[in-house]
Amino acid sequence: MAKRIRAFSIVNTRLSVQRGPDGKLYCRLIVLPKLPVSPRRRRIGRTGKKLSVLLLLILAGCRSAPPSEIVQQVELADSGDVRQVPVESLTNFFDHHARLAVRVEALCAPKRSVGDATWKISDEGKVCQAVASRDRVQYLQALEAMKRMDTKDGDQGAAASIEKAEGK
Question: Are the CB atoms for 20 and 4 separated by under 8 Å?
Answer without folding.
Answer: no
